[in-house]
Structure formats: C-alpha cells, structure tokens
C-alpha cells in the first residue's frame, strides 16, 4: 500500500490550497478515505471522510463550510480543497484508507 500526499504550502490567512493523495496497492475505488491532520504538540485530528463512491462526505466542525473532500476513482486520487484558511489550520495533513494505512503527510502552514 502506498499513499502519497502532496500540495502543502506556506500561505497567508484567507488563502486556498488543494491537497492530493495518490493511492496504490489496494482497491481505492472500494475504500472510504479520510483526511487527518496533526499540529505540533497536538493529537491527530480527523478532518473529513468520503465514501467509496464519492457521493457522501463528512467534516469536522472546525473545517465544515471551508474544506471540501473529493476523489477521482479513475485516477486513484483523493483531494482536499482548503479555503478560507486560518492559522489554526497549520498542520501536517495525512490521507488514510479504511485499513488505517496513511502516507508521509504534506505540511500546510498558514501565517
């Protein structure tokens, strides 16, 4: 299993960003997928989950209305669109499949 996140960046409050997670080694189209994040000194925080078909998503209250999760099953790729970013969104962002596998993360810094 391989999950490779990308798209992280350093940006100012109010900015937007799209994260990607390229998946391989398992049947991506059959797996619900999630995004998590972890800020320095903090616990891992769940951000969002999308079902295998891509038509049902859930969000943490802290990101609801600002972040959008999506997926392209033809490309085996998961996305997270981050809008109206705040300093408290600064964290390492990880994608994870239902087995609990996750990638190395991509850093988002808002300052």
What is the structure about, briefly put?
With 111 residues, this protein is mainly β.
Which characteristics define this entry?
single chain; 111 residues; 6-stranded mixed β-sheet; 4-stranded antiparallel β-sheet; 49% strand
Give structural notes.
This protein has 111 residues and is mostly beta strands. It is built from no helices and 10 strands. It has strands at 2-6, 10-11, 17-24, 33-38, 45-50, 57-59, 67-72, 77-82, 91-97, 106-110. The strands form 2 sheets. The chain has a 6-stranded mixed beta sheet, with no helix packed on it. A hairpin with a 6-residue loop joins strand 5 and strand 6. The model has no long low-confidence stretch (mean pLDDT 97).
What's the helix and strand layout?
Blueprint: E1 2-6, E2 10-11, E3 17-24, E4 33-38, E5 45-50, E6 57-59, E7 67-72, E8 77-82, E9 91-97, E10 106-110
Which parts are unreliable, with pLDDT below 50 for 5 consecutive residues or more?
Answer: none
Class by alpha and beta content: mainly beta
CA-based shape = globular
Mean pLDDT across the residues is 97
Question: What share of the residues lie within helices?
Answer: under 10%
Tally the helices.
0
Name the beta content range: over 45%
Q: Please tell me how large the radius of gyration is.
A: 13 Å
Number of strands: 10
Order of helices and strands: EEEEEEEEEE
Strand adjacency order, main sheet: 2-10-9-4-5-6
| Biggest sheet architecture | 6 strands, mixed
Distance between the amino and carboxyl termini: 34 Å
């Amino acid at each position: 299993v391989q999950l490779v996140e990308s798209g992280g960046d350093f940006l100012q409050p109010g900015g937007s960003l799209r994260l990607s997670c390229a998946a391989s080694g398992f049947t991506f189209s059959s797996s619900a997928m999630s995004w998590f994040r972890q800020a320095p000194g903090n616990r891992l925080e769940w951000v969002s989950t999308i079902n295998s078909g891509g038509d049902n998503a859930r969000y943490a209250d802290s990101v609801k209305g600002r972040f959008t999760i999506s997926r392209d099953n033809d490309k085996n790729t998961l996305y997270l669109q981050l809008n109206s970013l705040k300093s408290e969104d600064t964290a390492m962002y990880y994608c994870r499949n239902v087995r609990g596998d996750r990638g190395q993360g991509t850093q988002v810094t808002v300052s």
